[in-house]
């Protein structure tokens, strides 16, 4: 059995239970998924870099807590992939991934012309930086804007699904052969959209879950995990405890135990 912690790096638990309900049927029967958020009065979204900075210390502390609790993998659940390198430094054995990295790896094996659907134009520069950093510039052909904020995606699901469907169909009509939903709160729509447009639609919470399962399996079965030889070297315990204290999150646990 694999235990995976999905971390919503925000100061609200509003999405924890709905995401857990959406995630658990998508993983293997032997996977247990807990969903957590930060125990702080903080941003309810990370659309701005300033908000990423505000939640960084608590997110790092939750990674330490997850390592201590024996999770096999954790996902830093924002498509900006905030603090992913830091999380891998902190983690001594637990696999860590994030949505953009996971979805782009998956999409690049399924298609050659990937379109990413984002809520606002504001998001594109940072996401483009990640596309380039991860080496997927030749695969990602475009970003398409839904003109919706993070907190609007789940307010009217029928409207959101229609916006995603129309935008994804336009991308396919112009040459995309794979679509990535570029926000974790765009969850719950990919299967119907995929059926309608006829190409893979990578959900921003399901993709990272399956990738986290894969990484956990690699460590368990082959002994392959993030190398500590160079960039992911872990700080000394005394320094880590001084500057990155353990933070226990608000948590919605998998009811299957």
What would you say this structure looks like, in words?
This protein has helices at 16-23, 49-69, 84-90, 99-110, 124-134, 157-173, 190-197, 206-222, 237-243, and strands spanning 2-8, 31-37, 73-76, 95-97, 114-118, 140-145, 178-181, 201-202, 250-252. The model has no long low-confidence stretch (mean pLDDT 97). Helix 4 (99-110) crosses helix 8 (206-222). It starts with a strand and ends in a 5-residue tail after the last strand. The protein has a 5-stranded mixed sheet, with helices on both faces. With 257 residues, it is α/β, with parallel strands linked by helices.
User: What is the N-to-C order of secondary-structure elements (H for helix, E for strand)?
Assistant: EHEHEHEHEHEHEHEHHE
Gyration radius, rounded: 17 Å
The largest sheet has its strands arranged as 4-3-1-2-9
Uncertain stretches of 5 or more adjacent residues? none
Largest sheet: 5 strands, mixed
Coarse structural class: alpha/beta
What is the CA-CA span between the terminal residues?
Answer: 11 Å
How much of the sequence lies in strands comes to 15-25%
DSSP helix fraction: 40-55%
Average pLDDT? 97
Question: Which outline best applies?
Answer: globular
**How many beta strands in the DSSP annotation?**
9
Helix segment tally: 9
How would you concisely characterize the structure shown here?
This protein is an alpha/beta fold. The chain has helices at 16-23, 49-69, 84-90, 99-110, 124-134, 157-173, 190-197, 206-222, 237-243, and strands at 2-8, 31-37, 73-76, 95-97, 114-118, 140-145, 178-181, 201-202, 250-252.
Topology, please?
Elements: E1 2-8, H1 16-23, E2 31-37, H2 49-69, E3 73-76, H3 84-90, E4 95-97, H4 99-110, E5 114-118, H5 124-134, E6 140-145, H6 157-173, E7 178-181, H7 190-197, E8 201-202, H8 206-222, H9 237-243, E9 250-252
Helix pairs in contact: 4-8
